[in-house]
Prior knowledge:
The structure holds two protein chains of two kinds. Chain A is built from eight helices and 20 strands.
Amino acid sequence: MIEIRNVSKAYGAGKSRFLALDDVSVTIRENEFFTLLGPSGCGKTTLLRTIAGFVDPTDGSVSMNGEDLLKLPPHSRPVNTVFQSYALFPHLTVRQNIAFGLEMLGKPKAEITRTVDDMMALVQMTAMADRQTGQISGGQQQRVALARALAPKPKVLLLDEPLSALDFKLRKDMQIELKRLQTETGITFVFVTHDQEEALTMSDRVAVMKAGSIRQIGSPRDIYDRPAERFVADFIGDTNFIPVEVSQIAGTVAQIKLPSGKMIEARAVEGATGGASTLAVRPEHATLGIAQDALMAGTLKNIVYFGTDTHYHVDLDGADSFVVRAQNTPGNKLDFSVGDAVGITFPPQVGQVLRD
Amino acid sequence: MAKAFDVRKQWGFTTIAIICFVTLYLPVILLVIYSFNAGSSVAIWEGVSLRWYRSAWENTQVQEATIRSLVIALWASGISTSAAVLAALATTRVRPFKGYSAVFAAINQPLMVPEIVTAVALLIFFAGIKVQTGYTGLAYIIIAHAAFCIPFAYLPIRARLTGMDLSLEQAAADLYATPFQVFRRITLPQLWPGILAGAMLAFVISLDDVVITEFVKSAGQDTLPTYMLGQLRRNITPEVNAISTVLLGISVTMVIAFFFVSRIKK
């Protein structure tokens, strides 16, 4: 278990002072696949490097199972890192790279050989054992970097955007592979990415970061279905934002008035207040129909076909535009053309009232 | 359409370039040619011969000076390269600190201070030590050479260090390597082309130094260049050309090797 308490990291001084981490607190649980998600420059890598020991926080504490990590130099911390650039040692072979950590720990030769063989089998690199790292492909380098970091059996594996250099197909395969490895080894993974899909498909929990602070922590489903604020809703997936009036809040249920004047129940995050607010509705949670009896009416502006689904862009009467996404299942053919008057409907408690 | 500016088309460019190259290389070419002269003049050609190479080879003074030069150059390049490695590590593997530029300038001081000033300073300094200790060996020349060779060894090593991927050293530290193990197992294996290049450069610089050596040496401690300087004061024979040609060959070989070594990929 990693406890990060009130960690801040400032670079520069005076006017050029910049907070890469701004009072971050988070607890990463044992055997968890934990993802730090955010746009570039949000501090996710800085937080990872703080755990690894390459960044000294200006403030706060980092401990693992009660032990203060900040007192330990990087080589004494029971964590290993998969670097974004892989950082494979170019003068060593695949086997020597994977053996490096075990050698530094002073493990007996026989054990090193056995573990390295196991690791190479695990990442399917046995055939490449004696290659130089410059002679293998990017995907293979990635697997060697993974095996090298896993070989010393760390309590926590830190992964810094390890899949970003891979092409689409390979990345999909590695996502599944990584998840499988995590489940099999039982090691806690702390994974850094800017790819929201990667975060949603692999993680047990996701922390969404922005400008040095964590904006929301939750399961992928929580983050996607119940975004706490506009940034989170916008960063993860596509969202429609509608200006609404909150007339009443009871627990997590809010009564809201849509721009069309219709009332509906919506979910509210903690801290949401009455009055003018913003409602977030996912495009696939809304349905398109005739204008009569719909929650909101408008004109169909554009139809974009995506193969698996179709996006209907609607200009709402007197307000912004709204996108409805419909799955292209057999028989599910919406009979509308551009210019038609249409209506948009979504069930109660599907929309989310945001904090700001 | 206006023609793009082309420096080769500018008036006089070609002429100036030719003058420069002729001034640079013609005297050297003549020196090499006359080293093969059969006669005993450095200006009148009398046919091809290896006579002066043989004469230099058999000259005991030349033999002693050559051995002395090589001993000094080996020691000086060894000492200066070791110091340069430490200096390069200290100026590339630490956080930026106040006075960094001052340290950098101090390391490269021999490149900026006029050599004659260093020579006079060392002469006076060592004279004091000689009087106190009575020691008059080669160590004075070796120490002086090592000192002014440091920047020449330092610059290629530093260039190599700054070009190195820092995440490799971090990865090693992450895999439980202590700072010394990181240096031994990761930094050094990648640094050696820089170290070799620095050592070779220092060797060449030491081998051909005249000014400082002339001031610091005691009687009977001629190196090859100071021996040649002494010869020029008497009667000049093509023997000096022959020695110069060999020195030139060594320097050119080392510099070419330096060029290739410093380009070795990581």
